[in-house]
Amino acid sequence: xxxxxxxxxxxxxxxxxxxxxxxxxxxxxxxxxxxxxxxxxxxxxxxxxxxxxxxxxxxxxxxxxxxxxxxxxxxxxxxxxxxxxxxxxxxxxxxxxxxxxxxxxxxxxxxxxxxxxxxxxxxxxxxxxxxxxxxxxxxxxxxxxxxxxxxxxxxxxxxxxxxxxxxxxxxxxxxxxxxxxxxxxxxxxxxxxxxxxxxxxxxxxxxxxxxxxxxxxxxxxxxxxxxxxxxxxxxxxxxxxxxxxxxxxxxxxxxxxxxxxxxxxxxxxxxxxxxxxxxxxxxxxxxxxxxxxxxxxxxxxxxxxxxxxxxxxxxxxxxxxxxxxxxxxxxxxxxxxxxxxxxxxxxxxxxxxxxxxxxxxxxxxxxxxxxxxxxxxxxxxxxxxxxxxxxxxxxxxxxxxxxxxxxxxxxxxxxxxxxxxxxxxxxxxxxxxxxxxxxxxxxxxxxxxxxxxxxxxxxxxxxxxx
Length: 466
Hints:
Layout: H1 7-15, H2 21-39, E1 42-45, H3 49-54, E2 65-69, H4 96-103, E3 107-112, H5 146-153, E4 159-164, H6 170-176, E5 179-182, E6 202-207, H7 210-220, E7 250-253, H8 265-279, E8 283-286, E9 289-290, E10 298-299, H9 301-319, H10 337-349, H11 360-379, E11 384-388, H12 406-410, H13 415-420, E12 423-431, E13 438-445, H14 450-463
Parallel strand pairs: 2-3, 2-4, 7-8, 7-11, 9-10
Antiparallel strand pairs: 1-3, 4-6, 5-6, 5-12, 11-13, 12-13
């Protein structure tokens, strides 16, 4: 089945004319018809995708079908952010990221399910029903980019695009056993993406291999005059990083000494990943976790849970204020339970009702600055930091019920890096033979050091046999 190909392999075979777009799309539609009803991955698909692919077969992406999270604005396909507030909304303009994909010859095959407004880490808050994990449909795919991760894991897409605010690319990638790359904040444009936490949101690729992520990052990264937060730094050829090794890299293992993580299988496998990196030529240290800001120690992720909860809710309350039923589809009564909760908490956090000397939001931003300072110091000594992506395997369907902090707790190990805006990638680390579920390894690097991420993740992927 050609839909099981990696992006790189599909491009190579198309270039050599050893396969055709007709055959590729035939196999893709077949698996879509077999699996989508069960897994609930796509909310909409482009029935003219093959026709568009053939119009682009001489461009770099050669008409390859790409799945796109349903918070990217796409002309010709609905964009709902998985909320009934936007049910049936057809965008009038294209997001910068999907525009770049299309200009490079990629085709948006369909829009994938997500936690409504990206609020969650399970895809269970979607107003269109939960997505199921393709590795084991009794379990969650993670979120909020759960549909995009599931599309790749189920071979219903060659590759996909997601967004991360605090783990929403890396965590579903880990739970679905695929690769998820969260670029540095500002490396990829947010223009035309429905905002969740504007100071945090980072679009990025979810793929079958690290190489595929490098290929897509080459296309979507770069300065965008329509997004003032994008960086003017030159975009390197990330695929060149695939040819490098990690000899003389200094790598620190973080968070696994914390009582919540210490005795877990995820911690054990992360230690094994460190030993593999040592075998491949890197110098690896264990970094102690501290509740205070201390030199050569990592600031505990516990503070990040509180900081993210306050900052993200505050920005949500502002970003969702525009959805008033006048300019977009349906009135505010269509907001789901999770959205209403976050709006109210955000307004409260920005108010003076707490009778404190300064706003809770302002205090949270000060603690956020400590995380930035902490990572800056650690990256002056280390090239990379590694940890489990998530503290556990995917949890069963329904696990989010009655747990307002589900997302924050599942994303606890990636929230600090998202708050700081640094880059990270999750690669499959271990597969449980009984459940067919995966653990992910989270690799983090300093600002705009995606090349180091790709080098290390690629070498780990090639040498870690799971």
